[in-house]
TrEMBL record:
This is Serine/threonine-protein kinase PBL16. Residues 154-174 are annotated as: Disordered. Residues 1-174 form the Protein kinase domain. PROSITE patterns: PROTEIN_KINASE_DOM, PROTEIN_KINASE_ST.
Length: 174
């Protein structure tokens, strides 16, 4: 999403949103997504810093597990959250589902085996796949972004621009 990439790479010092979730993404004219609610923002790392130490803030279900365990805030924190949203869009599932026995499962854990096998069809919402993703390339792009965004902190060979380029000029609700 170009808005998130701009926060991380387009301004100095960079800004980390910390609360990327569906209700903080507004849809503008032409179905262009806009980032909103900057109440939890922090300045990002500067110079040769790899992270900023910070108390964990954000919405459960969208929080990067590496941030939660290390208190190290990086731009990847927002990219992970964006990956959760993309996965919700293609799978039509909530970020966290609770079962009858009060156990909860995260959408990334549910989808990871299929994403790692490149079995996109296993995660697509088949009831609405034609209306949600009208083109196969959109589904492929969404799954690629989700895979990039859902990587663990150790494997995160990403940058925001590459995620934005993968989504290209695709618009929400096409």
């Amino acid at each position: 999403m170009p808005g998130i990439a701009h926060l991380h790479e387009g301004i100095s010092p960079s800004i980390i949103h910390r609360d990327i979730k569906p209700s903080n993404i507004l849809i503008g004219e032409g179905y262009e997504a806009k980032v909103s609610d900057f109440g939890l923002v922090r300045s990002g790392p500067v110079g040769d810093q790899s992270h900023v130490s910070s108390q964990v803030k954000g919405t459960p279900g969208y929080l990067d597990p590496a941030y939660c365990s290390s208190f190290h805030l990086t731009p990847f924190t927002d990219v992970y959250s964006f990956g959760v949203i993309l996965l919700q869009l293609v799978a039509a599932r909530p970020a966290v589902e609770s079962s009858r026995n009060n156990a909860s499962s995260h959408i990334i854990d549910w989808a990871r085996p299929s994403i790692e096998k490149d079995s996109i069809e296993d995660i697509l919402d088949t009831d609405h796949s034609n209306t949600r993703m009208q083109h196969a390339n959109d589904a492929k792009d969404g799954a690629t972004c989700t895979k990039m965004c859902g990587q663990s902190a150790q494997e995160k060979a990403y940058n925001d621009s590459s995620v934005a380029r993968t989504r290209g000029s695709s618009k929400i609700g096409r």
